[in-house]
Specification:
This protein is about 40% helix and about 10% strand. By secondary structure, it is of the alpha/beta class. It starts with 7 loop residues before the first helix and ends in an 8-residue tail after the last helix.
Length: about 220
C-alpha cells in the first residue's frame, strides 16, 4: 500500500493493511478494476489521506460512496474533478456556504483546497463500479474507514466532525465526544435539503468558531 499512501497515514494504518479482511478487500478491488470501469482512478483511491496527513488534521467530513459517473470522483467525498458539473449535493453545500460565510459560489467543485487545510474528506466506501451506486459496499471498506475514524478519535483531540445525514450520524458512536466536537445535520442531497434538514445549519462558520476556541487557524472555505 506504500504506492498509494505517501504520508504519516501509511505507518498509522500499516497493521490494518495486513489484516485478513483488508487483504480480501484489496483482492476484490484489484479484480474489479481489471474487469470493470471503477472510480475513482486507482491512484486516487486514498487521495483523502494523501491530501490531509493526520498530523495536520482539523476537520473530518464523512460521505458514503464515491460518485459513479464518468470522471467525477477524485477520492475526496462530495468533491468532483476540475471542470465537471457540480452534483446536486455539492450544489447545496456551496449554497449553504454562500449563505453562511458570504463566500461567492465556487466555480470548481474540486475540494482539494479544503483537504490541504486539514479536512479529511472521507467516504465510508472508497471505490465504486461505474454507473452502479453502492456496488462496492459491504466488501470491507466500512471496516477500514470505521477504524480510521476510531484512530482519529483516539490519537487526536479537538477535531471537528461534520456528520451530514443519517448514515454519517451513525459514526458518532466511534467518536469520543469528550475530546472532539461533533456537528450533525440533514444530508445536503435535494431530498433532505428541500425538506428543511440542511440549509441554515451554519456548519462552516460553526466549524471555524470551534477551531478558534481550540487555538487552531480557521478554514478558508
Amino acid at each position: 500500500m506504500h504506492n498509494y499512501i505517501n504520508n504519516d497515514w501509511f505507518l498509522i494504518l500499516k497493521d490494518e493493511f495486513e489484516k485478513p479482511y483488508f487483504k480480501s478487500l484489496w483482492l476484490f478491488v484489484e479484480e474489479e478494476y481489471k474487469k470493470s470501469v471503477c472510480y475513482p482512478p486507482k491512484p486516487l483511491i486514498f487521495n483523502a489521506f494523501n491530501q490531509c496527513a493526520l498530523k495536520d488534521l482539523k476537520v473530518v467530513i464523512i460521505g458514503q460512496d464515491p460518485y459513479h459517473g464518468a470522471g467525477q470522483a477524485n477520492g475526496l467525498c462530495f468533491s468532483v474533478a476540475d471542470g465537471f458539473p457540480h452534483p446536486p449535493s455539492l450544489k447545496n453545500i456551496f449554497k449553504e456556504l454562500e449563505a453562511d460565510v458570504s463566500k461567492p459560489y465556487p466555480e470548481s467543485g474540486n475540494l482539494e483546497a479544503w483537504a490541504k487545510q486539514g479536512i479529511l474528506l472521507l467516504n465510508a466506501t472508497l471505490t465504486v463500479e461505474a454507473g452502479k451506486a453502492g456496488s462496492h459496499q459491504n466488501k470491507g471498506w466500512e471496516i477500514f474507514t470505521d477504524t480510521v475514524i476510531k484512530t482519529i478519535s483516539n490519537e487526536s483531540s479537538g477535531i471537528v466532525f461534520l456528520l451530514w445525514g443519517g448514515y454519517a450520524k451513525k459514526k458518532t458512536k466511534l467518536i469520543d465526544t469528550k475530546k472532539h466536537e461533533v456537528l450533525t445535520s440533514g444530508h445536503p442531497s435535494p431530498l433532505s435539503a428541500n425538506r428543511g434538514f440542511w440549509f441554515g445549519n451554519h456548519h462552516f462558520s460553526k466549524t471555524n468558531s470551534l477551531l478558534q476556541l481550540n487555538k487552531e487557524s480557521s478554514i478558508y472555505w
